Amino acid sequence: MILPIFISFAGCPHRCIFCNQQIINGQKENTLRAAQRQMEELERWVHPDPANELAFYGGSFTALSLTEQEALLAWADQRRQQGLFGAIRLSTRPDAITPPILDQLARYGVTTVELGVQSLDDKVLTTVERGHTAADVDRAVALLRQYGFRVGLQLMVGLPGQTRQSLLETLDHVLALQPDGCRIYPLLVIKDTKLATWYQKGLYTPITLEQAIEETALLHSTLEAHHIPVIRMGLQPDRDLCAPGHILAGPFHPAFGELVRSYEWRQIIASRIAGQGLGNYNMVITCPDSLASVLRGQHHANVRAWEAGGNIKVSFVPGQKVEVNFYDR
Fold it and tell me: Is the domain defined by 2-254 classed in CATH 3.20.20.70?
């Protein structure tokens, strides 16, 4: 289990055009005491387990001073020695990775570092004011590997200036880096950001939910096919993010990851139907109960799409794995 501690904007040298961490994660403070309060809340219900991981999210941890980093890490290490969790992970910027920083992270039990990459297209990175380049990502990943850390990359779809070709090139670059995991987020227009101003002035139009699902599915399916796990798709739909007026526009859905997986299954089974050829069929899908709703699609959208594609009647039966069989009517 990941135990998240949010240090909103802590260490960030500036704010990217799309970012309002206080709304995204609901934490208004980024002090050591604020982190301690979050941990006290977690301790009320978390069962101590060495498999748990403490995670510092919401800021650029390694862009803090070494002294500030050590204060947070030393405090966390006390909980680690008490058995609440076994390892620490954190998110940060790719241009804030140096040997002295990594020496200290390793000393305090950090095992995984997630880099906020968003894109590996320098033009896109400049447009969204990330303040780093794709080359910074390459250097950071190489250094993290040298020190033995697990590496995560955080990617986004729907960024200003991000074309299909740009997305494909970013995907190829990520495959070459071979991270240990990825997260994929669709860009949302959040209140009190520069992107919100652009949107209100008509300078930015977000992609649709359908586009976000399709582009995320492209990244997800390709990464998974190359044995790179995707550990999250879409932002956590917590109370602060979903409060009225916080999301101004963009492809938000509280079950975004499930929509992506459902879309992938729609395409997979549609290709099976196409390969079956013309006919009048009963298509029987065997699958575990836990996958049935994903396969059917939201409001049975997948079933309707498959049945609309020909003389096909779809039915489901429970089973251990997904199988698709066709029977003549």
Answer: yes
